[in-house]
Amino acid sequence: MSAGEAEPGHPFLEVERVEKSFDAVRVLQGVDLQVERGELLALLGPSGSGKSTLLRIIAGFETADRGSLLLEGSSFTALEPQVRGFGMVFQSYALFPHLSVFDNVAFGLAGLALAERAERVESMLELVQLSGLGARGIDQISGGQQQRVALARALAPRPKLLLLDEPLSNLDPSLRDQTRRQLRSILRAVGITSILVTHEQEEAFELGDRVAVLDGGRIEQVGTPLALYREPETAFVAGFVGRSNSVATDAEQLSTKTEFLVRPIGWDGQLRLGRNAVVGSNMCGAAKLWVRPEHLTLTTETEGPAGSESEHRPPSCCGEVVESRLVGPYALVAVALSSPAQGVLEVANTEPLPVGCRVRVVVSSAESVRLLFEVP
Amino acid sequence: MSEAAGTSRNGFDPRRAAGLALLVFLAWLVGYPLLITLREAFGLEGFSAEFFAQFADRGDEWRALWRTLLVAVCSVVFSALVGIPLAFLFERGRFFGREVLGALVALPVALPPLVGVMAFLFLYGESGFVLRGLRALGLDISWQLQGLWAILLVHTYSMYVYFYLFVRSSLARFDDSLLEAAASMGASPWSRFFRVTVPLLRPALVSASLLVFMTALASFSAPYIFGGNYRVMTTQITASKLNGQVEMTRVETVALMSLALIGLLLARRFDQRGHTAVAQRGTTRRREVGRKSVLGTALVWCLAIFLLLPHLTLALLSLVPANTWTTEAVPPVLSSVNYLELVSQPERLRPVFNSVWMAAVATALAIAVGLFGSRIALLIRGRLGQAIEGLLALPWAIPGTVFAVALATMMSVDRPWAGRFLWVGTAWILPVAYLVRSLPLTSRSAMAGLRQIDPKVEEAAASLGASKWRTLRAVVLPLVRPSLLAGAGLAFVTSLGDFVTSILLYSFETRPISVEILSSLRLQETGIAAAYGVLLMVLGSVVFLLWGRRTAL
Q1: Which of A76, A270, B288, B461 could be joined to A263 by an S-S link, Cβ 3.0–4.6 Å?
Q2: Structural fold of domain B25-551
């Protein structure tokens, strides 16, 4: 049970059964989401998954067809964006081109006295490490600096909630890493509740306390980065978050009811999986075994283990290396499995192997595989 | 769309309501006068084609129609022949002073039509500088600046600029690597020109042709001053109107309006098939032909002086006191007496005052309506948005003479319940006419400015707590301002120098500068007329050089 339910109050932000269609296209199909006070939730999904639309509905730039939005228990579904009191950082930054850096940051501080306003702007510029650039025009600063002005501008009025729409996607890859770390430390320092939309898993994992994965207008799974990586609950999450291989599998529930016996189709050997590694509503029928590249090992012994002992060996299958590339600390080796097994697997190996090399792929550990029964 | 939050949830959309109200207003202001004129061309009561039959029976009407078409087509051809080579010369040629001359060459378009015509009269007319000079050299020749060729001379002089500006801007964006690609595939220079350059310039050529055709169709000043017996539709209509042939005026107006609309529709059809291939990435390398030669430079400067001669003529004549110049080749006395008279005599100053206030009111209203209309049209889109956009742009296609007659027809009776008021002869009528003629200019520039604003910028303002009003005032308006000012400047200058609608709608108290120029010319007060002309010319040039080229391109 989550901590929010244990407390008497409501979660900080609640999105309830939000639906949205553009013309005939259903962009959001009943989205439920809760954000706790002070946390940073990342909305991760491919383009067209509806994540930006969801953010724009929370900001008030789009109206949901159905569903409601609550902040600390009270609905703000019908409020105009300008009275919601949320800050927003746009993908294109959307800085006011006719105003200086200072005036951009001061735009949301119309209610403050002049002296207080100047003080707040200075402290914001300091926060984003742009002190002394207040008098510059927007076209006189770099893209990275513009990004930080956009952040300072959104934070200046001390919003209740900060919304970030792909804030780093307009930056050069070389600048992105550095800016991401900077963004994380600023957001931690301010301690503001934030929602970040991104299509990059790395960004979501580094910045998000929790990550909500969206696909086709539905939330697939919400959880900490570690939980999403280790315990994906749907095939989409398993495939979208990090690299993963799927292997068609026969599976049967043992009489103990707590364990499953798993035999990848066309492979040698089998695997016992605990109940907690298995996901599916009906627990029978077609299933897929999801294994990450680092949980497979390669051996050059192409002969299968002999006879009756195979029952007790981990699943393995022969194949041929079709591609091999070094990706930093290890090499990714693509192995085309020999018949009767099918498909190409990606395996993490300490070094690249020559193409054409015969190898045997072994599921090295039962700890970190997932068995997903397909929805019929 | 950045919409949604503004739409209220019970079905009533304030934007649509505002759009509908604006549509009704524009329909009344722009469309209604034309419809009333069309209706009354069939008789005030009942429905009779009697006057159309009369029109069809008269040879001079058919002649005027034919001549109007001829003038328009020839103006397109001649303007293209002058403007296109100039565009290539200035974009690709090399000579000294290209920057300065490039701007000067576009100046004729900033000359109000009547002022340009007057300058030509003083320069090439039967007692103009050129003939006087030739006579002083001992040649005994004379000519009259009249008829088709005189009209075409003036038209070419002021309208080649459209070809020059459009083709030049198209060439500036032209990706020369296309020509290199063609050359690498073995295309000869001729085939490269006709198979690559010409097709890519097509949109510019079509736009310029359309603009010249419509301008020439509506041209009034040149045929009025130089036409003599060579009547085109605009002068035919004005003559009928001034002779009090009310019914015939309406039929003729309908005929010219139909001609303009047919021209517009045909051109639109033509216009749709066109595409520009401009440099996608990297810089466009300018291909320059030849070296900077003294001879070429001299030629281009001679050309520039030729183009500036009318301006110089006006400036010189405005310094000639009345009755001091008779037979000499060059005026013997020069003084600022004309300008002093203009400033010191209330009756001389009055037309200036009239023109300034009427143009200012019209421009201010045109800015308001153009900006509001464009904003609404962009926000609601759909059919309503298109209808508003269309009505804002329509006056561009309607010749000034046609609209003036239409407005006079509509505003000559007092029937408030039918949306008609007795405004003819009042100070209202000219600002209203100027307003309608300015709408396409202000709304086009407002539209261009609004389209450039990233909708996210407005959302950013809202997310920072700015009300809709503050977003409009502190974000949208400052961002549209440069573009809008350009359109407003052109609208003001056009209204200030307007002749074609003024001559049909003015009353003695509200006479504008152009009408005063005409009466000064009739009274042989050439110095005064030239001084008024210089005033308009300077204002027009300043506005054009500051802002005009940005919208023209």
Answers
A1: A270
A2: MetI-like fold (1.10.3720)
